[in-house]
Design a protein that fits this description.
With 96 residues, this protein is α+β, with helices and mostly antiparallel strands. The protein is 21% helix and 43% strand. The radius of gyration is 13 Å and the shape is globular.
């Protein structure tokens, strides 16, 4: 599953704009929060990883990343905004 431009997540809370990039296990999208039009980044598991048997474990890692970062407070570390589940995918957002 990959999210497409214009797609709404979280019951219309976010609208996907584009893919910003990806790394070893995640894909990061640019989206806007409809309520106020503020841009956010949303990271979820890469589509390449979603078909693998480790899918549940990888989702755990993605969630753990968010909770670990949420404990940090540093100008070079993003501030986690929200952790959420969209259909079968866990994701987390931050303001950009
Ligand atoms: N605020 C942003 N503006 C522009 N591009 C961004 C932004 N945040 C992330 N990216 C892009 O998204 C990619 C993924 O970034 P992110 O930090 O979310 O994951 P990663 O640590 O690089 O990858 P992984 O955790 O999957 O190994 C980055 O390489 C960058 O290209
Ligand atoms: Mg990383």
């Amino acid at each position: 599953m990959s999210w497409k431009k214009g797609q709404a997540l979280q019951n219309e809370k976010y609208i996907i704009q584009e893919v910003l990039g990806g790394g070893g296990f995640g894909v990061t999208y640019r989206a806007v929060e409809q309520r106020d039009g503020k841009p956010v980044a949303i990271k979820t598991l890469s589509p390449l990883r979603q078909d693998q048997p480790e899918f549940p474990k990888l989702q755990e890692k993605l969630i753990q990343e968010a909770f670990r970062l949420a404990k940090c407070s540093h100008s070079h570390i993003v501030e986690v905004y929200e952790v959420f589940q969209e259909a079968e995918l866990w994701a987390w957002s931050w303001n950009i």
